[in-house]
From TrEMBL:
Cellular component annotations (GO), alphabetically ordered: COP9 signalosome; cytoplasm
Classification of source organism: Eukaryota, Metazoa, Ecdysozoa, Arthropoda, Hexapoda
Keyword Nucleus among record annotations: yes
Family statement drawn from the similarity comment of this UniProt entry: Belongs to the CSN7/EIF3M family. CSN7 subfamily.
Region named Disordered: 1-21
Organism: Bracon brevicornis
Protein name as annotated: PCI domain-containing protein
């Protein structure tokens, strides 16, 4: 097998009310939690399945207070889960919480999302290095888990040793300073689209004029 497309299992529609944003419970609790309680809240948030964005929690005053004091590592770790990668975790372990296996796996999944935002074809060699995984089998197992968790959608190109990403099933948090850059990129993209559409319209008009000229020329020949 050279290409393996992974399809997540689809659940049957349910008449029950869909669950709320899984982060919401932590945001509500953060209104009153302080100090050790707020630190424990951070620990639970990065551990809980389905919680993959953390911006709202980072904005809570009681959580921000963790940055200055004995619980600073919890603040730094929450920032890492919001914006960082597993490789950054390995490089700064002395400044961060010690992660459980579940937390490590979540950060690895989030790292795949970040890589997928940069490239739709990610070589296994890059993934192995970024995720600190020693063999391809473990890497493919991690990717398959990410697909079934609706974190990414794609297929394993085993012949070319790469992950082909169709799209990410979730988006990561965006730092405030990055918003302007994203807006500028989108504006430039829209401008490029307008230029391309204008060129296409000119080509269509040219083709229509040539077609009309050909028809008129043919009619003139037939009349003669």
């Amino acid at each position: 097998m050279t290409n393996a497309t992974i399809e997540p299992v689809s659940n049957k529609p349910s008449a029950e009310k869909p669950p709320n944003n899984p982060l919401e419970q932590f945001v509500l609790l953060a209104k009153t939690a302080k100090g050790a309680a707020a630190a424990e809240l951070v620990k639970q948030a990065i551990e809980t399945p389905g919680v993959h964005v953390f911006g709202e929690l980072l904005d809570m005053p009681n959580i921000k207070e963790l940055a200055n004091g004995p619980y600073g590592v919890y603040w730094e770790t929450l920032n890492l889960f919001a914006y960082g990668t597993y490789k950054e975790y390995l490089a700064n372990k002395d400044k961060l919480m010690e992660l459980s296996p579940t937390q490590k796996k979540k950060l690895q999944h989030l790292t795949i999302v970040t890589l997928a935002e940069r490239s739709k074809c990610i070589p296994y060699s890059v993934l192995l290095e970024e995720l600190d995984i020693k063999n391809v089998r473990d890497l493919e197992d991690l990717i398959i888990e990410a697909v079934y968790a609706d974190i990414i959608h794609g297929k394993l190109d085993q012949r070319n040793s790469q992950l082909e990403v169709d799209y990410a099933g979730l988006g990561r948090d965006i730092k405030g300073g990055e918003t302007s850059a994203i807006i500028n990129t989108l504006a430039a993209w829209c401008e490029t689209c307008e230029v391309v559409l204008d060129c296409i319209q000119k080509q269509v008009n040219l083709a229509n004029n040539e077609k009309l000229s050909a028809i008129q020329h043919k009619e003139k020949i037939q009349q003669n």
